[in-house]
Structure of RND transporter:
Amino acid sequence: MSRALRAAQPLVLALLLGGCGEETPSPARAARPASQAHLVAALQVAPSAVPITHERPGSLRYRRLVRVFNQEEGRITALALYEGDRVERGQLLVALDDRLLEAEIAAAHATLEQAELDLKRLEDLRARRAVSESEVSLARTALRVARAELELLETRRSFTRIAAPFAGVITERLVEPGDFVSKNTQLLALADPDSLIAEVAASELLLPHLAVGDAASLRIDALGAQRFAARVLRIHPSLERRTRQGIVELALDPIPAGARAGQFVRARLESAPVARLLIPFNALRRDRQGEFVWLIDAHGRATRRAVRSGLQVEDRVEIRDGLAPGERVITRGFLGLRAGKAVDVVSD
């Protein structure tokens, strides 16, 4: 063995003995805490009285619209009005051929005159005791029947001339002069332009907070971006079963120029201030079990609570059931969150 090899043996032996000793723990491998608090953002809820503004779609319609039907059959002899024509109250709308009724009325007049003569003759005979009282009574009855028949025919003749029940505008013309129409056929439609209203559908949650006379505003798409003043005219008492919405009628004051029935409107309704529990919309969670929120309990741990939501106000939502004032609702930090997990609030 060479001198160099013999000199290196002690160094190699020392290295081998050092490798068999215990390993010194490094700072990087120091023991970590078994668990860490979950970082969340939270909000302490409190009731706040806020008026809620809702924009609801709807349409304009005539509140006063009459569909004109005929009560007598016959050929139309006069109809000079078209859609868009304005009429005055009492103006003639439609005339029907009344020649047959005129002939019947003439015959009824003759029958009435004969009945009057018969009664007078019998009354003279009764004064001479030539006829009985029962014969005179029958003549009186015949006279009343003749008068009633004449009145009936004259009433039917009046039905052949149909006049406007109010001042308005013709919206439909469904027949033409010369047409033969049977009874109860719609001939025209007449609307009152001053009765134009907006009709919108409102949620069952909003309706209890509206009242007749409340101020509102609306925008008519066909007339541009201008908003027009309105007020709540009527709230219908029943709801549509499928959507749970009710009808609200809005009166325009004044009715803007260019407004027409059937135009699309966007109505803005504002309810009276009511105390509500509102939370950020993203704090309301949903899954197969329904709506819920995450709360922080007295021990600083997350707990799940089922709730029932109500109206949405911009970026917040009303909690109608399941939440009490003063409780702290988690608004952010839901990833990995579970019931019973300790939480650390980073912002309130």
User: Anything to note?
Assistant: The first helix runs from residue 3 to 19. Residues 98-159 form a domain with the Helix Hairpins fold (CATH 1.10.287.470). The first strand starts at residue 38 and ends at 44. The chain has three helices and 24 strands.
